[in-house]
Amino acid sequence: MLKPYIDAVLRVWRLAIRPTRGRTALALRNGVICMAAVLIGEIWQLPMLSLLTLSLAALWQNNRVANMKVAVMYVVFFSVVTGVLYVGVATTINNFFATLVFNLLLSFVFFFLSTTTILGLISVVGGLVLSYLLVTLDSMQIGDAVARLVLYAWRVFLIIGGLIGFIGSWLSPSPEHVLTDQIVERLFLSAKCLTRRAKGQPIPIGLQEAITDSVGEGVSGMFGVLGLAALEHRWTGTDLSYLRRAALNSFGILQVVGQCLTNNAPISDEDCAHLAGKVKALGECFAENRRPTEIDEQTVCSGLLAQEIERLIQAFTQPLTAEDVQLPPNQPPAKNPPKKPGFFIPGAFWDKENVRFAVKGTVSVCIAIITYKQLNWTGVHTCIITCFVVSLPTMGAVLDKQRLRIFGALIGCSMAMGLIVWVMPHLTSVAELLIVVGIMIFIGAWVKAGDQRISYMGLQMIIAFALSDLVQFAPATDLTIPRDRIIGILIGLTITFVVHTVFWPCSAMTGAMKKLKALDALLGQDVTQWNHDQRTLQAARVQEAASGAMSSLRSAMLEPSYMRPTQHRLRQYKVFLRRAVMNAGCLFGATAEHQEKKVIRLDQILKEDAPASAQGEGQS
C-alpha cells in the first residue's frame, strides 16, 4: 500500500539531487545576486527587502541575453505601473473601500496579462508586490509618507531591473555556453548508458529517468537558446549552424540510446563499447569549447540502432542551417502564414477562459485581503501572495502548485526557524548575514534550477525563507514569524482552492486533449520521403508533444473525480502516449520505411480494451 507513495518520494528526491551540467553554477549566481540585493537593501534601508530578494530569485535566468530582456521589460512595465499606482493611491487615500477596488482592478489586469502577454511571471511578481504594497499603504494616514513610500517602491523596482540587467550581463554565461552545456549533458548521458550496457552492468533507475526526461524535452528549448545566441551578434552564421547540428544530433543519439535501456535491445556489447568512446570524445570536445572537425566516417557497427548512432556521430562535422529542417517540399505552404508573436498572444482578447481566469484570481485576492484585514494579523499577509503564485488556469495545475507550495514553504520555514534558533544569535556583522542568506538561497535555487516538475518547490523555499528572516534590517529572532507565514500560506491555499472550484472550474483535460490530438496529427504525417534531419526533428516534436500531454494528464489525475475522465479512459491515453514514444524511434534510419505500419493512431487506441492494451504494452 505504501510503495506508490515511497516511489513518488524517491522520484522527487532523485529530481532534486540530479547533478545536471550548469545547475550548480546557476544556483550560485542566483545566490550571489540575492546577496547583493540584501547588501544594497541593508545599506539604503529599503522597504520590502524580502520582496526584493524573492523577485530576483523568481526572475533570474540562465543566460545574459534572457536576463537583459527580462530587465528591460521589468523596468518599463513597473515604471508605468508605479505611475498608475501613485495616481490611484493619491485618489483613494484614507478610503479602504476605494483602495480595495483599485487593488482589485490592478489584480485583474495582472492576472490577465500573465496569461495573454509575453510578461508571464513578471506580471505575477508585479501583482503580488503591488497588492502587498497597497495593503501596507492603507494603514498610513499621511499623504507625504505615502508618496515617499511609492517612490521608494519605484526605487526598489529599478534596483531589481538593474541587478538583473547589469550584473546578469556580466555574471551570466552567454546563450551559446548554455546550449553547449545542454549538448554536453546529453552526450555524456548517452556515453554513460552505452558504457554500462557494454560492460553488462544494470542501468540505474536515476540514469534511465534522466535519459527519458531529456528525450522528452526535445529540441525546442535548445533552438530557443540558439535564437538568443543569434541576438548577441557575436557568433557567425557558420558557428550557429554547427551548434544547431550538434543540438539536433545530440537529441537523436539520446533518442536511440533510450531504446537500448532494455537487456533485449538489438545492439551488441562491442558496438556499445565502440560508440561509448566516440560519444564521450564528442562530449569532451564540446566541453573544451572546441568544434569537432575530423570524425572517422568508416562504418564499424552492424546493428540498425548502432549504425544510426554512428551516422549521427559522423554528421557532427556538417553544418545545419535553419532552412534544412523546415517542412519538406511535399507539404504545401500555408496560405496565411502565422504572424510573428507580439506583446499579446494570438486570440488573447477572444478567449473567454483568459477573462475567467483573471476574475477567479481577482476574487481570490479580494477574499484574502478582506480576511487579512478582519483578522488584524499582520503576520499572515502571505495569504495575499499565495493567491498570486498558485493561481493557474486549470484545476489540476492549481492543485499541483498548491502541493509544491506547501512542501516548499514547510522546508523554507523550517530552515528559517533553524537559523533563528541556532545561527542568528551568533551573527555579529552584515557579512555573516550575507553568507547565511547566500547559502539558503543557493539551496532553494538548486532545486529551482532542476526539473520543471520540482522547480516551483525551490522557488517556494526561497519565498518562505525571505519572508521569514528578511523582514527587518537586523537578524531575525522571533519564531512566530515563520509560524505566521505558514498559517498565511494555508489560508491562501484554501481560498484559492475554493474559488477555483466554485467559479468556472476548468479541467486540465481540455488542454490534454488538444495536446493528444496534436500528437496524433504528428504521428499521422508520412515521413518516408523526408531526409534524416527532418525525421529527427519530427521525432523531437513527437517526444515534446507526448511529454506535454503526459504532464497535463498528471495534472488531471489530481482533480476531483467529477472533472477527470474515468480510469479506463486514462489508461487508454497512457497506452497511446507509450506507443507514440515508441513510434518516435521509427523515424530513424532504415526503420522509417516501415513507420506507417507501426504507428497506431488515437482513435485506434480508444477502440481497444484498455486493460488488454495495457497488458500488451507491458509485455512489449
TrEMBL record:
Pfam families: FUSC_2. Belongs to the YccS/YhfK family. This is FUSC family protein. It is found in: Cell membrane. Signal peptide: none annotated. Residues 369-499 form the Integral membrane bound transporter domain. PANTHER family: MULTIDRUG RESISTANCE PROTEIN MDTO, P-HYDROXYBENZOIC ACID EFFLUX PUMP SUBUNIT-RELATED. Keywords: Cell membrane, Membrane, Transmembrane, Transmembrane helix.
